[in-house]
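Render this sequence as a predicted structure.
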Amino acid sequence: MPRRIEVLIVGWEQQCCGVPARLGETVSYRLAALDPALAPALNPAIALDVSADGAVPRFLSDNHGEDSAEAPRLNISGLVAGITGVTYPSVPVAGMPGTRTSDTARPQLHRLSELGTGDDAEMNDYLVLLDVPGDTVLPHVVPSTERTVHQEREAYTARLRALRAQGEVGMLLRELADDAATRFGARARILRSDDAAAVTIEPRRAGAAALHWMRSAEDGADGIRVHLGDGVWNLPADVEQVEVLREFLDAAAAGRVEERIVQGGDGLGPLQTVATAADGCSWTATTDLLARFGRGGVFAMARPLALRLERGAHRYVAWE
């Protein structure tokens, strides 16, 4: 009697060297077992139960990995019983300006009749239901040192995050995020992690300065990385610096943040972002990576620096 399995095909894998598949046809895949501990790092879609007939054993189509005792790969043939394309909304990452990720918690499913014809190229993942002979030997997972190390590292990081969130600095960051939401929720889009260790505040008014912060989750490197306007600060994660972060929030909201281009004897010097508190105290982030301009020749410049030069020196407007 046939046995039903489900094959996860990551989008880039299909576009690179995936095989065409149609409902009712027989296809062959090189399959690897999905390690419950390591699979989420490959693709979060494996956690979704989107099979038409409920949960079935799921395997990964892998044309690039190497065989090993821990993760053997086998060529498996079967009859295609279903094809589902999966797409995920693209969402910004809290605390990381310009960074987006796939929101795997909100998959969008697309029933397909065939795969590999070009019309399905916009999918992030594919799930193929495959009916294989009942006596088919399928790939299996053997517990490995890599799996154990991965599990221990993930568990340690989770514990460290929880401890830091419950500490004084963690509580102050949460209070600051709550205060920002109360004061500016109507004037800015606010994204935050559950523990408020990462927050993005993007004002709706054009020309206003956005504020992002992210606390490190690394052992022995407890700090807060802050992006305000075009400037970047790396602050120690202590009570005093959280108060500085609060001053940054107030300065951005009040329009007390400006960009400067320092003039040097041989051309343009460093770029600076200056945040000024209500009492006149200020903090400056300096970017020294700007290439010096000569009187001719060709030079290369990173796009963020080029954009800052194009915008020039200016003062951000208030969030009001």
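Summary. Helices lie at 11-17, 39-42, 145-166, 168-184, 239-254, 303-311. Residues 44 and 104 are 6 Å apart (CA to CA).
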